[in-house]
Amino acid sequence: MSKSKSHDQAVLAVCAEQPDGVLQSALTADGGPLGDLVEMQERIDVINALLARKRLAMFKQGTPPQFVVKLAQPHENKAKGLSAEEALVHQVIRGAGNTGVWTRDLKVKTNLAQPQVTKILKALEGRGLIKSVKNVNNPSRKLYMLEELEPSREITGGAWYTDQQLDREFIEVLRETCYKLVERSESPHASLGDVAEFINSKGVARVPLREEDIGTIMQTLIADGRIEMIEPEAEGAPERYRPAVLALPEATAFTSVPCGVCPVSDQCTEGGQISPQTCVYFTAWLDDSDAPSRPAALDRRALLLAGGAALAATGRAAAAASAPPAATWDGWSSPGLAAPDDPDLPKFFRTPSGVKVQELTPGSGPAAAPGDAVLVDYVLRRINGYFIYSTVEGVSFQPRDVPTGPVRLRLGGGEVVAGLEEALVGLRPGGKRRVLVPAELGYVSNVLQPAMPTFATKRQLANHASEPLIFEVELLRVLPGGKAA
Predict the structure, then answer these.
(1) Rounded Cα distance, 121 and 142, in Å
(2) Percent of the chain at pLDDT above 70?
(3) Residue 340: beta bridge partners?
């Protein structure tokens, strides 16, 4: 056997034992398979000859970058027969590793025209040599890498992303799992390594999670006041976690009252347009109190009304004499505002089923009836005035990318939220009603209309579907018999 062939086989044998790759420096070191060659250039020539014959493949990995050599896979033979330009583009993409390379960078590094680069990329993809991936930080930018490589976490977002979207549900499940583990661990309390090992052993994530990944989750639990970190007892000992001794309450007495979260509480004055006596959210909250008896509830109402008026009046004696008008957007009230200051406007009336309705504008024309289709605008809020969604653009702090516009509902078919449908029946075009819908007549099914248009609004509604909700709805048009608009 010739000396050159023995060197080739020695290198290939070392690479076969380490399929993930061998550092080039290890192959050319004095103690490596080419150590009997005196000159370093001779050792490098052996590696280059194997690379040229497609027996080996070389990649640049790590920070700082190092050259890694491994056995060429059968599919790498697909690179044979490439033109000079195609081989150049393929080489640049291979050098980018699992972080990929952008087409603009390819153009700069290869000095090829953009149409030529695009044509070559399509040819390489067709031969199964490269693939395109999206960067979660810039979804509109395509990155190219070798077909067999797994994109780096910086590109895919790691375990936190699914199909280029932040997987909020998975993150919440992981948070609860970590918290339960910390809650159950006692003497010694769970360390970061313990939590990471448990999570990975249970296969909770699609990919193995690193300790720093779990550490990020633990920091969110600390920020929420659910757990706390225990300082290490000795130098070098791991940090451990336990449930927070003084956990933050989910709600306080003040935040459970609509006044505590009302964005216009500074405009609330006794006898003013915005006042405790006329606030529909305050009234609904009082009516839903679980007081043991009506006299007790009346006492509570009187006490809170007086307290709310006193609180609103504090420091605003001058403003009370001339309260500013309520802020509205084309007649739609902002969160927490009372009904228009009209002495003839009726208070809430309760239907036999328990729905509370307030007539804001009567409307005119044919009244909506079961079997009709109606076109409506609406604003949906929680009972404390917190905003959920609006079809009317500009109401509250709804993001601009959330779709708006009237929605079409069919009455009488069981497709619409029961409490809202009850308020729509009898309403005339141009009429507007504010409706307090009990939970049992609300979104008892996730297929009921009106449906939320985005994942974020659907998630927000799902979190509060078991609560009473407030619709402020305007009937725009009645379509008798459900005819198309």
Answers:
(1) 11
(2) 81
(3) none
